[in-house]
Structures are given as C-alpha cells and as structure tokens.
C-alpha cells in the first residue's frame, strides 16, 4: 500500500517509507482476518478435551480441511458459512462434536459415512462484535507503534551518520522532516483503515466515540479506504 506523499530523495527516508508501506499492507491483511471465517477456525485450535485421562488439544486428533483444495468434496457441498474437520480417531467423533458445541458452535454434524464433521459458523453475538472491534483497535495500536519504531530507528541512523561525518547537516535536516511526514501520513492512514473495519464489523451498531472520530469518518467517506472490507461477512 502506497503512501500519498512526495517521494523523499535521501536513502534513510526511502528505506523508512518502504518499511512503512509494508506495515500498511500487513495491517489490511490482519484486519481481513478479524471476524472472518478463519477467525472462527482459530477458536478450534484452542479447544481442549480429556482423552484417556489426559488434557489434549482438539488439533491433536483432527485437522481443518481446506475445502478448496479437497477434490473429494463436491462443489455443491462447499460453503462460505461453514467448515469441516477430519477426525483421526472415529471413536472420538461424538465426544468431539459435544465439546465443539460447548464452545459456541451449535450446528455441528457428522458427515454421513465419513470421519468428517461439518461445523456451521454461528452469527456473531453483540459481545463478539464488540470483541472484534476491540481486536481491531489493538491491531491499529500495534501498527502505529511499529511505525514509530521505524522512524526512531531511522533517526538514530541519521544521528550516527552525522557523528561519523558520513552525511552533512543539509542532508540530515530534510531527511528528518521527511520521516515526520511519513509517520504522520501513515498514522492517519492506519486510523482510517481501522475505522472502516470497525464500521464494517458493527454495522448499524457502530457509533463514533467522539467528535474527532466523527471528523475522521467524514474523511473516510472521501477516501479509497472506504471500499475496504465492503464485502465483509462471516
């Protein structure tokens, strides 16, 4: 994802800008997962059950099947609102179905004549949506912190280069100004992207937290980021 600012000419700012744009790209990828089908799949990795007196992970006895890669699954049986797992030990299937249901998945059924279990992704509750919005804010903060570290690292490199007389002050001063602009622009983009994700998640339940966020919302309406997460659904 490119920053909409003038391209700096010094190597310090160019390197920082490239790293910053990478972080913006990773941010969108991370936010795409929040509240998605993959996020619900991840819940299963934490599910535990007692087998032969030992506390074990569900993943020790099963695997999530990538339906797109499995040629044995009929195209008509594939679904965007469910996923399936393959259980390695048939004698555990009923226990596994029970434990999955206890973890919030109400529609869990064994596929006839197989060791597959089909799990329908539930509609998220209001509490879950709020948790997703909170996770979005956490990811925002993490990205902003990484941007700050990039700027700090670059400034330290400039300082060291000045002390060793590798560069002159007339190069260092504009380089620092470029770094300030890069950070400011990136933080603004991160907040726009995060706001769009939270609005997509919460839908009609979304409300602005303060006047500053409301102003950001008006800027979002005119931003290309307003097209992000437009097709969000579980």
Describe this structure in words.
The chain is of the alpha+beta class. It folds into two domains: 11-34 and 125-227, Ribosome-recycling factor (Topoisomerase I, Chain A, domain 4), CATH 1.10.132.20; 37-120, Gyrase A, domain 2 (2-Layer Sandwich). It is 53% helix and 11% strand. The protein is built from six helices and six strands. The strands form two sheets. It has a four-stranded antiparallel sheet, with helices on one face. Strands 1-2 form a two-stranded antiparallel sheet. Helix 1 packs antiparallel against helix 4 (126-163) and helix 5 (169-202) packs across helix 6 (211-221). The protein starts with 10 loop residues before the first helix and ends in a 13-residue tail after the last helix.
What features would you highlight for this structure?
single chain, about 230 residues, alpha+beta, Topoisomerase I, Chain A, domain 4, Gyrase A, domain 2, 2 domains, 4-stranded antiparallel beta sheet, 6 helices, elongated
Number of domains: 2
Number of strands: 6
Number of helices: 6
Encode the helix/strand succession as letters: HHEEEEHEEHHH
The name CATH uses for the topology of the largest domain is Topoisomerase I, Chain A, domain 4
Largest sheet: 4 strands, antiparallel
Task: Determine and state the CATH class of the largest domain.
Answer: Mainly Alpha
Q: Give the structural class.
A: alpha+beta
- Strand residue content: 5-15%
Report the CATH architecture of the largest domain: Orthogonal Bundle
* Uncertain spans: none
Label the overall shape: elongated
What is the gyration radius calculated from CA atoms? 24 Å
**What spatial order of strands do you see in the largest sheet?**
3-4-6-5
Overall average residue pLDDT: 89
